[in-house]
Amino acid sequence: MVAVAFLFTACDDDSKTLSQEQEIDMSDFYVYTDGDDGSVVKSANSKDKLKTCHTMNVLNRQLSENPGQAKKMYDIEYQTRKFLAAKGKPDKPGNGGGGNNDGGDDVDVAPIDDGLGIIKIPVHVNVLYSNSSQNVSDNQIQAQIDVLNTDFRNNNSNISMLPSGSTFVNDVTDTEIEFLFNASSDITRKSTSISAWSTNDDMKKSSRGGIDPTSPNTTLNIWICNISGGILGYAQFPGGPASTDGIVVAPQYFGTTGYVSAPFDGGRTATHEVGHYLNLRHIWGDGRCNRDDFVSDTPTSDRPNYGCPGYPTAHCRSTDMTMNYMDYTNDDCMNMYSEGQKTRMRAIFQVGGPRETMAN
Predict the structure, then answer these.
(1) Catalytic one of 178, 273, 339, 356
(2) pTM
(3) Is 356 a catalytic residue?
(4) Exposure class string for 199-210: b at 16+ Cβ within 10 A, else e
(5) How far is CA 341 from CA 77, 104, 355, in A?
(6) Digit-coded pLDDT (tens) for 347-356
């Protein structure tokens, strides 16, 4: 509560200094979330193998451990909304597709020209293994990078699964983000006696896997290691500590070939986590119907979806975008980022954004 009070006191101070010509509405912004509160069982070890991402729990921990991180995330959100406003988009971008519990129509977001062209992100992969299965092959790693490029450029063959009558057909987009990787130079491998890691970022210490010396300013760091508790992966949002920036994915959910486990053998765990790394929230906003993911063309919902739900699946009086990469559905049933999500991701590469140097 003290941290939250500090954040909004700081926010009030900032609002006094906003330029008169453009005051940005931040009234709906939040940092702490419900996380995985145990109300829904999400374990990859369960009979049904339900997807579980631990990103929001890690965010809550980091906010408690790092004074000032909440303020950094507020500033990043402010910069994002200022960019949207300058492009003629709403500066309070949430509540799309039936938000505010009004059951409204889907919101279509028009593309914008942000002047950046194709953004190319270098990738470095750190493999920590305690047995030969966890020491995933170069081919498995390359297969995952290929999936990232396929998904972010909207070349996913799953797109044919989106019903022709779906209200979301017009929302699917090419994010114009690509990932650069060379298996001969961009992999670090380290044998370890630790068979399963927690989500306390210990695998990122220099004695474990370390972080690529050129990052985090220019490189996406990925750690592949077995994670305890049946967790598939987690990411760090922009604004977190530089020494732990990147994503973590369990080896059996990384890539499409080799040591992979169905139904999460399509590489979408990394696609999901990179979405967080590029400042996307879960599609349901990690709360009830009044919580939002700050994207205007993704519908309001109050829960994740699992498996391969039929269309339409509705909560909060609107149809869920179950096929979005930021939900929890099976890999084979994910097939899209929305135009609004694209704009939100690309905002962090703009001048003054937290990942500006990656685009320059």
Answers:
(1) 273
(2) 0.89
(3) no
(4) bebebbeeebbb
(5) 14, 19, 16
(6) 999 999 999 9
